[in-house]
Write the structure tokens for this entry.
Amino acid sequence: MKPAKNVASLPPIDDKVRDAVLDVTARLKDQPGALLPILHGVQASLGYVPEEVIPLIAREMNLSRADVHGVVSFYHFFRTRPAGKRVIYLCRAESCQSMGAAKLEQHVKQRLGVDFHETTTDGAWTLEPVYCLGNCACSPAMMVDDELKGRVTPESFDAWLLSEAK
Amino acid sequence: MSITVYVPRDASALSLGADAVAKAIGAEAASRNLDVRIVRNGSRGLYWLEPMVEVETSAGRVAYGPVQPTDVMGLFDAHFLHGGEDVLKLGLTEDISWLKSQQRLTFARMGIIDPRSLDDYLAHDGYRGLAAALKMEPAAIVQAVTDSGLRGRGGAAFPAGIKWKTCLDAAADQKYIVCNADEGDSGTFSDRMIMEGDPFVLIEGMSIAGLAVGATHGYIYLRIEYPHAQRALEAAIEAAKARGYLGDNICGSGKAFHLEVRMAAGAYICGEETSLLESLEGKRGQVRFKPPLPAIQGLFGKPTVINNVITLATVPIILDRGAAFYRDYGMGRSRGTLPLQLAGNVKRTGLVERAFGVTLRELIEEYGGGTASGRPVRAVQVGGPLGAYIPASQLDTPIDYEAFAAIGGMVGHGGVVVFDDTVDMAAQARFAMEFCAIESCGKCTPCRIGSTRGVEVIDRIIAGDMAERARNEVLLRDLCQTMVAGSLCALGGMAPFPVLSALDHFHEDFDRSAPSLLNPLPFGERVG
């Protein structure tokens, strides 16, 4: 990636968002290969990487906006829109398939009323597909934020969702 | 004197409620005024028995499992703290035949030690490999790894010693050791177990690699789906730094080695070594052309050794016990042991470390106890999503790199996923292409476009009439050949293997009439 000059002025962004981003870039930008750690930092701080901070990150890193956009859009984990309060990562990979993941997937989508990459209307849950959580000995698996669950069935999913609602 | 109780902190054990069990044991012990010390160990790898609780007794460690919080009061009533009888009692852990028949070298300490305790690691032969390496010349360390016959455990099975030698011979002001901890293959979890259950062995292995090739900085590129491993590694790195096992002067030798964990961001392709290096450099994870080899021009353009977690975690025992000790295990050109991961539709899932040569049948029937559903085994996928589907008729194939290559399969990272006879192999073939389309880095056309066209052709085969099917099968096989021969890396180059194996061994699944409501088309992710 060639360093590029950002001649265009930065689009206006919220002060709080700018401060959060600058706080992350100031901390991390001097390490080699800093862009992924910075994007992780921004997503951890704001919950997502808003499109409007990309020019700011680019300027701080001395990269082009296209470079930063290219990286953000390449990786499944980075999101440019806010997620629900919690994110459910449902495994779709082979080991889970062998234990009924397709049926579970259908059930979870119906139960939450969303497809993958969507957020429930009340903003409580975002559903994301994932390809292996390393819990293949206890398939089917899902992860809620960073809480791993194993041997999930449609029934146990409903019971868990009910317990979360309380 | 306090009684030591072990409750795993392994992510899979946690996914089955191990935290609640530990809490219940603590609370029950407090209410009974008993002095209990709870150690959060790694998992022994007997996942059908997790959460598995162990108690230290004068006769050895006694296991109970699977334990749920509601069982805890009963266990105390049964005097489990003194090895008392209970329906959940499994006997002495080391006598459990599933464990006893294994040959645990890389996993020697797994589930035994407290992964947060450097003292525990040292008390169980930890850092003996590094001590030996510190007395050796770099070339001698590389020679030991070469002589051991250790091949890359990530999947490609490239001899580790040759990779190291290439890097050692490259002159540069800076070299790197990179650990590929982007364990993305479905059915695999041995890297995760090592990082969570015995993280110091990986740190030690990387330090030895640093001494061997003259690298002073290491990175562990860890997948974002492994937050528990991240915490375990970061704690271990801090502990190793504090005691002088990492830093500017490791063990007073004057040699430096620094280590840090870098988090990935959910791209399967970043498990491919050159794409991983791009990602570490802060770029899109796009595959590089080879040559130059990473060992000559790798991370930030510098000579880099990039190895999988298991490869690096096996180095300490080779240096400690000698190359010959390790090489004496195994068969043919596959030397040593392989931590196999038994997953999917299996009654007794878990980690089986055995010398190369054990057959799939022995693994699935004797260790696995058959399918979890009780139905017949129909297909086994070995080596992750790019591995061929092996039919039940080939279960006597020994686990050996060459034997698997001979039947068109691959051992890969050692993941074994079992399917029973309800599996729809046409749907599995479609998924292989779908997965490749979602995860393709987009750099080369056969992979980027071929995978999407592959999904479409398989859909037409499933939906079409006889004539349409025959025409499209020719097209699909041709497309697979183009991907195998023309892709830049293993993703596009191997995604056709599960497809072709499904066509070859399970052709009847493509011949069924158009899908009915009872048997709908697999619905999945948008592709293309």
The mean pLDDT of chain B is 96.
